[in-house]
Amino acid sequence: MLTRRTTRLAGLLAGLVLMATTFAASVMLGTTELPPSTFIATLLHYDPSRVAHIIIVKERLPRAVIAVLVGASLAIAGTLMQTLTRNPLASPGILGINAGAMCFVVIAVALLPLHAPADYVWAALLGALVAACLVLMLSRGGGRAGPSSLRVVLAGVAVTAMFVSFSQGLLIIDHQSFESVLYWLAGSVSGRELSLVVPLLPLFGIALLLCMLLVRHANALMLGDDMVTSLGMHAGTIKLLLGLVVILLAGSSVALTGMIGFVGLIVPHMARGLFGFDHRWLLPACALLGACLLLLADVASRFLMPPQDVPVGVMTALIGTPFFIYLARRQQARP
Amino acid sequence: MLTSLFKAAAGAVLTLAATTALAEEITVTDVAGRQVTVDAPVNRLILGEGRQIYLLGALQPETPFEHVVGWREDFSQADPDNYAAYAAKFPEMKQIPTFGGFKDGTFDVEQAAALQPDVVLMNLEAKAATEDAAYDDKLAELGIPIVYVDFREAPLEHTTPSMRLIGRLLGEEERAEAFIDYSQAQMARVAETIETADPQRPRVFIDRAGGYSDDCCMSFGPGNFGKYVELAGGSNIADGIIPNTFGRLNPEQIIAADPQQVVVTGGHWDAYVPGGDWVGVGPGADLAAARTKLEGLTERTAMAGIDAVQTDNFHAIWHQFYNSPYYFVAVQRLAKWFHPELFADLDPEATLRELHERFLPVDYVPGYWVSLKGD
Q1: Which end of chain A is more exposed for a tag (fewer CB within 10 A), N or C?
Q2: Which residues form the signal peptide (chain B) (predicted)?
Q3: Per-residue pLDDT at B281 exceeds 80
């Protein structure tokens, strides 16, 4: 573990270099292999008549930028979720965010003339918000301390089950209408235009600003609700604000790319192993590692079943499932 | 009163006896290679897909619904234009009980049994799902045979045997052979020219149901429209990427392949995707509106900078050519788009009109294709 300030800074710098490398790999590797010179030439002098330049600007760059944004967001959301619930196996999905987003998109497609990711964004975001609020409402105790960890997990399981079963029912009844949603449901950063990101940037911005303001309180929360109170704030308020950050980050990510699991589960453990439990270092580390993981998963998805392109959500599940089993077994082994 | 009742009952018994006497037990081999024993000519038929009426209509144009006692509810949604044309001419069609699909597990065996069909006509692509749900066993126990036909998975290989099979079941063998001869003659008009001239093959991208979903792009592998492209003298860019009949290409693969021709398959899919970007071609289509939508599809990421967009070799064609015995018209239309000089004398519209006049129950109404080239 990196303990001293200088080594942690060096660690973050190394993370930044790793992210830049994976970003470059994401832009250069794929169906068409593009040399670094083409990438540099495209950035300096974009020529819309050259196929390689078009591929980089229209497909690869948006794909990589979205992977960075979503990977970082999901990783931060996962860390905060584990802090909130004091459960190392927690992820944003526990708040029912994925299931809520899925359900609202399915309902919107069934009832409204929606058929494009740009249209899904707001339905997904609303679904994520409704599901998370429902979980938080159901998990509130009688006192002022806010939702208890166990109640959050149980409420999350119940709300997720409800939304998933409702979505599946609709998909079975009218599967033809939902063909347009299927690829979104699998989770993909491919074929998304950067214009999709623009309306969500304020939400990502608000979430990151809240993160910076609440970083000390997040540290205190790990030591117990009393520590938060000693900093002059109600533990319940802090939990709700951190919950809001999770909803904004994970909800916006799901709205943008569909169901991408396990990033919010794996990355916090990797980051804690390297940077410890201090959120001042942990959150930036998570952002960098989350971006790297999703970029790598996306690159790998291009080579898993060539020339077919596997949705990145499938790839993260392939990576994440063994990791989840390992974590669960490790938790079980502890006295 | 009693006398007239007795006469009616006696008439019904005699009619039943006559049809039973006329019916003979025959064994047919369906397109799945199964030996099926049925009483022919078949009197009561369930269509596992509504669009099988394309086959029946060609064989019994005067009374296409005479033997249909139930059908899957897809015709009205997948091909609303033809549904309206058939409904106008055969209003009794709207009274036929409808079913869910075998593939999605919404078929109701009890409802099927209550209709007492002699046979259930099932599409080949639903075979695995039918067997998984044990529909075949359940229907067999009730003495209802399933016969598989296909004009979607491998239309070029299976349409002819499917046509012969249904012709035999309905006692319309001569009519079936006439249709087969006609379709083969029309196919030969393209095949012979391509074989003789051996032209340079343009790179072609088939955009399956383009605009139906914003996820770009669905296409065809080596089968169905992918095969039509090859027969029409083109080179399908998805061949070698999509291993089966249906699949998808990512935008990068399309940009990298730089297709010289793009053919979007379209239809009026308001029932599935209301207000979608699909190109509404089909009988009686508003071609100006279809052209506007087609132009809109050139703006997608996957179409950035490709040859077909720059040269206006960007076309749309009726999607149901992929799932009907009229595929030869699509092959002719593609051939004329890919090699206009070579097929200057070929008139796909005249072929489609003749097909309607000679074989189909409904009148020909243009609107089956549109192109940014303007032809």
Answers
A1: C
A2: 1-23
A3: yes
